[in-house]
Amino acid sequence: MLEVLSQCEPDILEINRSLESVKHRSLSILSDLYDRELVGIIGWAKQIPGFTDLSLNDQMRLLQSTWAEILTLTLAHRSLQLVGLRRLKFASDFTLDERQSRDCGALELYLTCCHIVERLDNLSILKEEYYLLKALILANSDVRLDEYHSLKKFRDSILVALSDTVAILRPVGAFNHVQQLLLCMPALRQADHVIRRFWTDVHQQELVPMNKLFLEMLEAYCR
């Protein structure tokens, strides 16, 4: 499980330079990045052992219900290198600080994500733990599925892999550390609400264009 996850982690994106001069520059860049990240996590999910054993409907329901949590964890982990600067790293060449976030109306999103960055930093999360926690988020949806037993098998396989990995990497205090990692998940669920509300408002106010996939994922499932 860990070997596959370490190999299928999507690469960090670069911004689309054609968006640099448009109105609401930062929002336009963020919208484009979220859309492209969504394409990446669909491909990522299909490589996780056990995911494609689920029905296609269940696969889509899981992605529709967890994409915001997955992208938030990805953003937070990527931003750990900037934790002292309190900047969020959305792409290799695009970061946001508090002032920029306030200017584009994304202050709540920024503060919520910074809180998760701090949580991960306090845990000194390792990349192997991040890979498995991210997969666990995909499998931890509360959405109603056709094949619950297949989901349980998928989720249990990730939990076992997470416990085994932490036991090897942190032989002292492994059980407690697994618990602390799992306690990050409610904060990610809370971030889900913030992110969906933010992008729904952006769409309703027609502030920037939003691509078809992003809109479909935003509108398909609301907690």
Automatic annotation (TrEMBL):
Pfam entry (one): Hormone_recep
Record's keyword annotation contains DNA-binding: yes
Domain NR LBD: 1-221
Keywords assigned: DNA-binding, Nucleus, Receptor, Transcription, Transcription regulation
Molecular function via GO: DNA binding
PROSITE patterns listed in its UniProt record: NR_LBD
Alphabetized InterPro entries for the sequence: NHR-like_dom_sf (IPR035500), Nucl_hrmn_rcpt_lig-bd (IPR000536), Nuclear_hormone_rcpt_NR3 (IPR050200)
Protein name (record): NR LBD domain-containing protein
